[in-house]
Hints:
Layout: E1 2-5, E2 20-24, H1 28-40, E3 44-48, H2 51-57, E4 66-70, H3 78-85, E5 98-102, H4 107-116, E6 120-123, H5 128-213, H6 219-228, H7 230-262, H8 274-285
Parallel strand pairs: 2-3, 2-4, 4-5, 5-6
Antiparallel strand pairs: 1-3
Amino acid sequence: MTATIGDQRNSLNREPSRGIILVVDDNPANLQVLSSFLDQSSFEVWAARSGEKAIQRLDNDNLPDLILLDIMMPGIDGFETCKYLKSESNPRVRDIPIIFMTALSDTADKVKGLRLGAVDYITKPFQYEEVLVRIEQQLKLRNLTKTLIAKNAELQQIQTQLIHAEKVATLGQMTAAIAHEVNNPINFIAGNLNFIEQYFQEIVNLLELYQKYLPDPPYEIQNAIKTKDISYLLNDFSKIIQSMQLGTDRVTEIVSSLNKFSRYGEAGKKLANLHEGLETTLLILGHRLKSNAHRPTIKLIK
């Protein structure tokens, strides 16, 4: 049978619980006396008469802070119960400290219990002050371990954030460097495209003058004009120049977006255009919105 002991006293006069202790012993007298003593010491006590009942009790969401486990019990004895609770298949209860209660004084039995995962032994007949001290020490150790684990998790989270911030800063530097390196040649190309377009137009004008005043060139020239389709070449060349101009404008826009996105070299707070920041980000991420083998195009609604 599983029961909660210690509700006899008036709850209004009861000190706050110092923790939950699960006592597992098949001897009703031992169970009653030990539970009563722990209850008077302001612990909440759960009681179980067998290893099977103790395991069932631990299936609940709420778990004890410590287990007092008798070794000599019918059915699943204390060693088997401890082995089951400390197995890798029970991650919820593995860290609950287990103190064996035994009348055995054989060193081999004590070593066996410690190797199974127990943290301490209490020898029968009980010295209750000793029991209380051992319980308090193990609970302090467990609380300290929990605190260390929480602090370690907090430090790991901070470390992750610092690494992420460092990566972002490095990415900003690299982005600014790439934008700077790309900006120079693209400006050179964009500037020369204006001259190419101007020179091309001048060549077209000269060809038109030539056709106007020399409509009947030699046969070889006439044949070359027909073969090369000069009209198509001039028309397509103009489109190529326009396409190159659009491409350089696009690269210039991307470089500008990278500079704005990285904000490298800027310090302190200043006003920023939120819409410009969003457009810059969307421009950089635009290629990821396109369809691929796993999904269709992502439609962005602003």
